[in-house]
Amino acid sequence: MQEIFIGVDVSMDWLDIHHPCPGHRRGAQQIANGGRELTAFARRAARAGAWVIFEATGGYDRALCEALEQAGARFSRVNPARARDFARAIGVIGKTDRVDAQMLALMGERLRPALTEPVPPARRALQAQVTRRFQLVEMRKQEATRLKQTADTEACADIRSHIALLGRRIARFDARIETLTTEDEAFARIERRLRTAPGIGPAVAATLIAELPELGSLGRRRIAALAGLAPVARDSGKRNPPRGHRRRPARPAQDALSRRAAGLPQAPRLHGLPRPPPEPGKVAQGRHHRGRPASSSPSSMPCSGARQTSQHDPNEITVAGSKRGSVVKIRRIA
Predict the structure, then answer these.
(1) For residue 136, pLDDT beyond 60
(2) Nearest CA to 208 among 266, 126, 117, 119?
(3) pTM to 2 decimals?
(4) Whose CA is closest to 132, among 160, 164, 169, 161?
(5) Which of 47, 163, 257, 308 lies at a C-alpha separation of 20 to 30 Å from 66?
(6) What pLDDT band is residue 233 in, cutting at 50, 70 and 90?
(7) Which CATH number, 3.30.1130.10, 3.30.420.10, 3.40.630.30, 1.10.600.10, labels domain 5-111?
(8) What's the gap between Cα 259 and its chain centre?
(9) pLDDT score recorded for residue 83
(10) What is the pLDDT of residue 21?
């Protein structure tokens, strides 16, 4: 029996669906993002044994996830960047909602991404609390910056009162998060192990538990790569730069692992540090030193388009003139 793959492009108000399920029109179909239509679609997909593929859209896909979980349908929530890379790889340059739905169905058929496991209610509640706490912390940081930039007395008083209010609300969420992590036996066991690492406090531990359900089931290399902290090779030809990390966090857990929530200082970026000079006799690596000996200097190298005309007079060079076939002799003055 041929497996059915359904591609769904998620928007805030509607869903564009591309599927060949029996009883449905082939091609694109548009339904509301929520309500009875979505529930009916999830049930039909579950009855047909279809595999639903859609992108993570920052919360707009929550209703679709819940409907598919309740109906018992299989689905994969994929990274939007990977879905777009797949479309480019097969030669699709245009981007519309209908095209994206079709590409997602084809991506499921060709690549067969991993199935997304249903989120337990306890983890979903913890994720909501951690996300809201993170938002409040960011708001408090923004208000603290505005306080330094404001000179008006009344405005400063209002900002201070707002910062105090945000602090009380953050403390309230800290208490809720602590209750959720202590009441769940699995969460409490993971938190105790995380707290044994230096620099890991309750906020970081709760963020890792909520955002990285793979903790405890993957090896150290795979979990580091999943969190975006594993070094990535970017070698090409003679260019061999140091291994670096992704500049932008792929998940909120990367911020937690960067120890921002714990208030510890950030480690300096590797690409922001000066590169040590190459050893004598070796060719320097990198974009700016490709193929140039380490001992050479700009003053001892001839300029581009120039050549030395005589071995007896190394201070005289010849460069091409503005007219075809013309040359200009330049003598270097010591």
Answers:
(1) yes
(2) 126
(3) 0.67
(4) 169
(5) 257
(6) confident
(7) 3.30.420.10
(8) 17
(9) 94
(10) 57
Which residue's entry shows tokens 């979505």? 38
Please say whether the dihedral angle defined by the alpha carbons of residues 277, 281, 287 and 292, taken in this order, is positive or negative. positive
- Token output for 266: 């950030």
With H, G, I as helix, E, B as strand and everything else as coil, classify residue 14: strand
Q: How far is CA 238 from the centre of its chain?
A: 28
Burial call 272-286: b when 16+ CB within 10 Å, e when fewer: eeeeeeeeeeeebbe
**What was the pLDDT predicted at 297?**
44
- 9 and 16 in contact (C-beta within 8 Å)? yes
What are the tens digits of pLDDT across the range 144-195?
Answer: 999 999 999 999 999 999 999 999 999 999 999 999 999 999 999 999 999 9
Other Cβ atoms less than 10 A from the Cβ of 209: the count is: 26
> Rounded to whole angstroms, what are the CA distances from 219 to 44, 215, 222, 225?
38, 9, 5, 10
Residue type, 273: L
The Cα–Cα gap between 297 and 105 comes to 56
Burial profile 28-42: b = 16 or more Cβ within 10 angstroms, e = fewer? bbbbebbeebbeebb
- Distance (Å, whole) CA 103 – CA 92: 9
- Return the domain boundaries, the chain: 5-111, 121-226
